What we know:
The protein is of the alpha/beta class.
Amino acid sequence: MDLSLDDTIAALASAPGPARRGIVRIxxxxxxQVLAGWFEPRNETAWQRASTASVHPGLLHSVSTRAPxxxxxxxxxxxxxxxxxxxxxxxxxxxxxxxEAVLSELHRRGARPARAGEFTLRAFLAGKLDLLQAxxxxxxxxxxxxxxxxxxxxxxxxxxxxxxxxxxRDLLELLADLEAxxxxxxxxxxxxxxxxxxxxxxxxxxxxxxxLQQTSDRMQSRTRPRVVLAGLPNAGKSTLFNRLTxxxxxxxxxxxxxxxxxxxxxxxxLGLAFDLVDTAGWELHAELIxxxxxxxxxxxxxxxxxxxxxSAAHLPADQHSLDEQLFIETKQxxxxxxxxxxxxxxxxxxxxxxxxxxxxxxxxxxIVDLPEVSAVTGDGxxxxxxxxxxxxxxxxxxxxxxxxxxxxxxxxxLEAVAHALEHAEESAGIESVGDELIAVDxxxxxxxxxxxxxxxxxxxxxxxxxxxxxxxx
Length: 473
Ligand SMILES: Nc1nc2c(ncn2[C@@H]2O[C@H](COP(=O)(O)OP(=O)(O)OP(=O)(O)O)[C@@H](O)[C@H]2O)c(=O)[nH]1
Ligand SMILES: [Mg+2]
């Protein structure tokens, strides 16, 4: 990882491909030299004298584009930019060949192509962001759904860094107290009692253990959640699967038992991103099912974050209790379960609801409140999305503070912090152990904590973080 800040670097900062606008970002000490002679600002004096953030409309005279190009140059001429160095953005028409021509011209005139993540790396080195926030930038870029975005934004806003910096401050104070005591060891002055020392170390250890718990929750929820469609044969699972995956991959037929194996696809639907699985219908005569099939089914249910149990709205009355019984079994096995009434557009669809009112005997009272869905007309799908959103949120746990990659990178260091604090606590519990030994452990904990925040960094850590970025960020 090259940490040199002397080069002026440039890259495309907008998404590749044609768009109304394209953005080229340049940062480094020599921006004005690089642009001199081909950027013609409308107001030359304003451009030359700019000392605060400002916009400069003008023309770019590139040799490779015959006509001059209209450009707005957004200028951050001082340390108050994203990277902590002079930075400009060229806002141009978003035509790929044109942007390429401008980038080649920039490179020809001395701005080197930026490496992946180099803008954010410079922000980190200038102290504008800590490492957790740098990773959050990546989290915002990569967010798959609304929740991931929220969690990345929270991390970017510094919530997590704030808490870890607080812990670091506490430990630094503790170390200062311990070391002050060591300086006066001859005089027998005590700066901190053993009781207090033990209490402060134990609080810090518990705090770190909580964070470790959260990182493991976060890492588990990093992969896409798994949603499994289940229900009696002919309930309409495959039709719903095709609707949600916007495909015709699942075979659909009026004959029961059409789906024999399970099908899986990735779904991005109304802001929800998940893997959807279509399963074979739960057999009508449960007692006749071979053990293997049942085992296979439970595996699907157990692997799911949420099961969507499909109850066909036109299901004949003599099958209601079987549907109910299998639904209850499934619900007990599954982490989360949503039950819906399917095929509600059918003329005979209301039978169940009427039955529920007239003979509520073995019908779950909540049946009346079920989302009513028709995979054919699309009615009720928004309600299904809403229930699914709620279930997925609770199934994925409450810890949204850590981005997956932050969690992965920090886990090792956090474990080392916890280990050092545990050791310190143990030592502090033994009267004959001197403060100087406890100070060694606290220093060790601080060292590992510093790596998480980037107060102490190694090339290896920076490589791991910044190599994941795309160019231009
Ligand atoms: N009118 C209407 N018909 C539907 C709807 N959903 C499914 N169907 C029909 O119901 C029948 C069964 O649908 P499938 O999607 O194959 O049902 P399944 O649950 O996958 O069935 P198995 O794979 O056998 O378990 C087919 O004839 C579908 O066209 C719906 O929302 N409205
Ligand atoms: Mg099917």
